[in-house]
Amino acid sequence: xxxxxxxxxxxxxxxxxxTMVLDAARKxxxxxxxxxxxxxxxxxxxxRLCVVEIVRGGRSxxxxxxxxxxxxxxxxxxxxxxxxxxxxxxxxLLKARWPLIDKKLLExxxxxxxxxxxxxxxxxxxxxxxxxxxxxRKENVLGFVGRGIERQVVSxxxxxxxxxxxxxxxxxxxxxxxxxxxxxxxxATVCPASRDEEAFAKPVRVRDxxxxxxxxxxxxxx
Amino acid sequence: xxxxxxxxxxxxxxxxxxxxxxxxxxxRTAVAVCSGPGCLAYASGKVFKRFExxxxxxxxxxxxxxxQTGCHGFCERGPSVVILPDEICYLRVSPEDVNEIxxxxxxxxxxxxxxxxxGEDGLPIQKExxxxxxxxQQKVVFGDNKRIDPRSIEDYxxxxxxxxxxxxxxxxxxxxxxxxxxxxxxxxxxxxxxxxGAKWEATAKPPADTRYVIVNADEGDPGAYMDRGILEGNxxxxxxxxxxxxxxxxxxxxxxxxxxxxxxxxxxxxxALDVLRELGLLGENILGTGFSFDIIVHKGAGxxxxxxxxxxxxxxxxxVGEPRPKYIRTSISxxxxxxxxxxxxxxxxxxxxxxxxxxxxxxxxxxxxxxxTKIFSLVGNVKNTGLVEVPMGMTLRQIIFDIGGGxxxxxEFKAVQTGGPSGGVIPxxxxxxxxxxxxxYSAGSMMGSGGMIVMDKDTCMVNVAKYFLExxxxxxxxxxxxxxxxxxxxxxxxxxxxxxxxxxxDLDLIEDISVMMKECALCGLGQSAPNPVLSSIKYFKDxxxxxxxxxxxxxxxxxxxxxxxxxxxxxxxxxxxxxxCPVNAISGDKKKPHKVNNALCVKCDxxxxxxxxxxxxxxxxxxxxxxxxxxTSEEAANE
Lengths: 222, 639
What we know:
Chain A is an alpha+beta fold and 222 residues long. Chain A is built from 7 helices and 7 strands, in the order E-E-H-E-E-E-H-H-H-E-E-H-H-H. Chain A has helices spanning 21-27, 81-97, 103-108, 128-136, 157-167, 182-185, 209-219, and strands spanning 3-8, 11-16, 51-56, 59-64, 75-77, 142-145, 152-155.
């Protein structure tokens, strides 16, 4: 593979073609926060925290660095004014869902308090558990249902009953990778890995009982 | 088709064409009953049945051609029936009118005056093309609808159908076809207006064993149905365009991704494809030219986001219709990782015309940067709603006032929303804007697929923005944070505004979320989602400020902010408002001024609408003022 030369915050670096900007920048010592990115999983591009500004020939563009392959001659700005401003708003949105988000990160980007309406459902839909289960464990127990703000992670009951108890609490269990800890925190009641028979049919994140019943129904109660 | 003979050479096609044209008398009387979605809802199906019965009863079956055609465009006055060749246009035809039409017009050659369009001077207009709604249009793509039975390939061939395909595959190289389309300046009719020729070229370029061409018929903007009109009324025009594109790009397989909610479009397209296969115009070695092509219809499951190119391709592959986050063009790696060219219905329908009439003809219509015509769905508070096709560059004023007939109930014009949920609003000051891709874009809106929603002065712009965001919040796929949570929080802000609980810094919050979404969201849906809010703030900031600071709704729409009162000076005591009030909140003696009890009022707006326009005694005031008024009267009572 050929090498690509680009600038990260003004410093020239050379990396292998096909490398993502995120990895190149981190290698060059830049700090870029991520949530949905996890080594070993396909980049997902959902949290958008890793956005950077890419300048080429005087034209700049904001991209998700976890998915943007390096290109010759581009100038990557990981902390430009725009980037900082956008990250601040994204963190603010994330905080509304997940109040326990890293305080240091909030402080670093100066996230204002209490502007957003709290949506305390904790799960940030990073999809790590879903992707981990399908890509690494090849089990496909978890999946997304619903669109927009109604999107949620659910478990496929029939398979969860079989697979989750075997996987539960082991080194490669999904709950070890959940960045918000929502699976860990709630595992006694909602995690598909829980041995509580009733809970098997519940989604990972429960909005209300009606919804859970609907999901239960749509998944076909086993 | 009466008899199917498989065509195996271009000359076979030519002789079939000659045979069809020879067998047709251009002066033969034909009755075109519109079966577009609007007319069907007004029982045009029954009108058609009555025509069948009446024609056979009158013994005219052999002399008159009767067809259920696609949308004629004038949906406001549907069902529309056009009698050819004289183009006598009957509007709002009910099944009961059919016998009279058959008797008077078809038998005796006279017109049924009461069913004709009445001009502003009150005189009836007989010919369809003389009606103002049609007069200013230039129907290039949409015009054949009334002359074609969508189930008859003969009708299409008689109108010159498939000659462009034959011309392309027998006399032109793929490169020449691309060059012609590129030269024509045709731009995508589905949204961003990307040059179609450049897209074709980019798809044809990368080395690949397979390529795909795809029709995007996942039309989903609220109030827009142009693509439905074309697919239902003239499916062959889209198919022919797709085939030409397939030939030019080097694809042997095409897809039509059409939403399931368009059953008639799906039926008509499937029927057309069957006929084409039987004729040998679709399949292996078409007309012996060595060009093989087939088309698969994929029914969409009703997600707006599936109109996004990579999401649409995911859906065809059988996966969830979610946009792909990767930064790679579908022209390089699209459907199944192969170079794929996606254009929308109207874009493909333009292609046969460009090939037949040439790029120079196409370029002669339109403006510098936008060539050809565009179909708009003109809806909202406008007198003549319907589908209109106009040359690019016509002003908004011409479209809304000359074609659309102005604002309903002669109210004042306030704004027009173009481009669907991704577009924006354009205020009155900009009515003379020439409608093309670039001018709309620089006005903060966009062409989109051609939705045009006209709004009168009784519209609240905050409420309109809220409506579009509600639509988008249902339709966002929910994958990325900016779109999923950004829309959610924006919506919360707008809900606060319309409920009178907005915070002083809410405009800043909107700004912060919106600019972030525009650059950080994963796909076009999220990137353009703040547009309805941003563009209405741009032109109607005072309304937002009124909602926030003054807790008032200038449009008089937001229920939490308004209250009704009756002006004692103006009220004539007719009692109309009292009768219509569902909660008995209005009281008063005959011929004496009436009164609204705001404690009972549910703000249904009935009294406001019922009050005679000459009187206009019922008025809207700020809710906040009502509370103060009560407080003062209570204080007075206590004292």
